[in-house]
């Protein structure tokens, strides 16, 4: 069975051109499945049935694997069986009509307005890095752009006089308004810090690292973790947290979903509707805490 796994991975690499990480994920999932088969004394893939696969999924469940992990394992196993069926190694694919376990969509972690204020207060404009970090965090929360979009911004994407930025990353260009606090932070950074940080006058990047080059996603991740710890915020903060908080706070304050969808750059409004669920949950919490007969 091991040789079949190697053939399958070679097929994915050659014909599907998958990334190395994806290939390793497929290989790991199927090797674990093969190990399980051997444990239950099945040494030939032709001896497996739909019942075998269901038993394996239940085995993963008993081991405490997350629903998303089990679902991913089934997807890998399904692809493997499709390959060996088309290769005429087995006659019938046992994964046909086998349903994946439903994965609950987790609501994103958001910060309260007080926590956002606390986080944004952390960068101090006493050195070049402080000016830059203050401008980055203010801009993220003001616009809800992705971190990948933030670090891709060029100076030419700003129009501070009109109060907006142009976001060109992705399939569509978006013009997003920014508020006075973000504008002031950006003006301070551009006027007092960026020129001293940049070593090449031809550098277009808006936000640069200490070497004067475009800041990376990993670099930003370290920055936000530092300020989260300084602010003593106990929630898990990711580079996406300010984006989620931006959307949730807009909705709480009366913005409509379509406008939020446009600002976030979601192609499908179903991606934006998760913030409506967050708002509903908050209303429930407020009701339970404040209604005398809740």
In helices, the fraction of residues equals 55-70%
Give the spatial strand order of the biggest sheet.
1-2-3
CATH architecture of the largest domain: Orthogonal Bundle
Overall residue-averaged pLDDT value: 86
Describe this structure in words.
The chain is mostly helical. It folds into 2 domains: 2-86, Tyrosine recombinase, N-terminal domain (DNA polymerase, domain 1), CATH 1.10.150.130; 113-289, Intergrase catalytic core (hpI Integrase, Chain A, Orthogonal Bundle), CATH 1.10.443.10. Helices cover 59% and strands 3% of the residues. It has helices at 2-16, 20-39, 50-62, 67-86, 113-120, 128-143, 147-152, 180-197, 217-231, 241-252, 257-264, 269-272, 274-290; strands at residues 158-159, 164-167, 174-177. A 3-stranded antiparallel β-sheet has the order 1-2-3, with no helix packed on it. The longest helix has 20 residues, at 20-39. The mean pLDDT is 86.
């Amino acid at each position: 069975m091991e040789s079949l796994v190697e053939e399958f991975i070679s097929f994915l690499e050659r014909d599907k051109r998958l990334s190395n990480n994806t290939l390793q994920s497929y290989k790991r999932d199927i090797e674990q499945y093969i190990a399980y088969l051997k444990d239950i004394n099945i040494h030939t893939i032709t001896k497996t049935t739909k019942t075998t696969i269901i038993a394996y999924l239940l085995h993963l469940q008993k081991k405490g694997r997350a629903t998303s992990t089990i679902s991913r394992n089934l997807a890998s196993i399904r692809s493997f069986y499709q390959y060996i069926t088309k290769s005429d190694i087995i006659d019938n694919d046992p994964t046909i009509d086998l349903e994946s376990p439903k994965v609950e969509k987790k609501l994103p972690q958001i910060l309260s307005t007080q926590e956002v204020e606390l986080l944004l207060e952390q960068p101090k404009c006493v050195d070049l890095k402080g000016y830059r970090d203050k401008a980055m965090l203010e801009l993220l929360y003001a616009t809800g752009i992705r971190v990948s979009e933030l670090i891709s911004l060029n100076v030419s994407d700003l129009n501070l006089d009109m109060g907006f930025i142009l976001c060109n990353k992705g399939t569509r260009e978006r013009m997003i308004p920014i508020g006075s606090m973000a504008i002031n932070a950006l003006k301070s950074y551009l006027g007092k810090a960026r020129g001293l940080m940049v070593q090449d006058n031809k550098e277009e990047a808006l936000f640069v690292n200490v070497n004067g080059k475009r800041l990376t996603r990993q670099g930003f991740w370290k920055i936000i973790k530092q300020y989260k710890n300084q602010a003593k915020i106990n929630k898990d903060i990711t580079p996406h947290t300010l984006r989620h908080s931006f959307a949730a706070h807009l909705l709480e304050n009366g913005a409509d979903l379509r406008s939020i969808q446009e600002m976030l750059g979601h192609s499908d409004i179903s991606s934006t509707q998760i913030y409506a669920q967050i708002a509903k949950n908050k209303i429930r919490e407020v009701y339970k805490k404040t209604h005398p007969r809740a």
